[in-house]
Amino acid sequence: MKPTLLLLFLFGLSFALAQTTAQLETQVLSLLNDARARGVACRGGGGGYSLPPLRFNATLAQVAKSHALNMGRYGFMSHYFRGVGPRVRVARAGYGYLRMSEIIFKGRNSDPARAVRWWLRSPVHCRAIMNPHYAEAGAGLSRVGHAWAVVLAQPR
Q: Which is a Pfam family this sequence falls into (predicted)?
């Protein structure tokens, strides 16, 4: 009886400790904002000074989530899905922007810190994160395939 109770306890504990997808998406934005606050310097130029935090935007989050789910479901890693890129997806969602970028990541797990570390080590992704014009962002995660997408933008 005791081994069964222990297994049930550990099984229940694992569920209690597991983070929801929404919590992980919030965490990735928090980590991006930490990098902006620290003034991360990007290899090859860019960054190097503290920036204000990115504000969460639900429309950008939905665009990012949809793309992450497609990457996970169909097993690809690209900014384009069926010939449609991020600028078109954001415009179709009704978000008016002056500038925007999408950063994506696909790994062995859904760890937000791992994705953010990878982006910050990549000069082009780091420059997008540290772009002083960007004020809003939304993140999406597909646990199937461990695919991340983040859309950053300067609203119109």
A: CAP
Q: What is the CA radius of gyration of the chain?
A: 17
* Residue type, position 28, single letter: V
Residue 13's identity, in one-letter code, is: L
The average confidence (pLDDT) of the chain is: 92
Q: Is the pLDDT score of 6 beyond 60?
A: no
Residue 6 CB: number of other CB atoms within 10 A?
Answer: 10
Is residue 137 within 8 A of residue 153, CB to CB? The reply is yes
- In whole angstroms, give the CA distance from residue 66 to residue 142: 9
Residue 1 lies in a domain: no
Q: What is the mean pLDDT of residues 76-105?
A: 98
pTM of the model: 0.88
The domain tally of the chain equals 1
Question: What SS3 state is found at 147?
Answer: strand
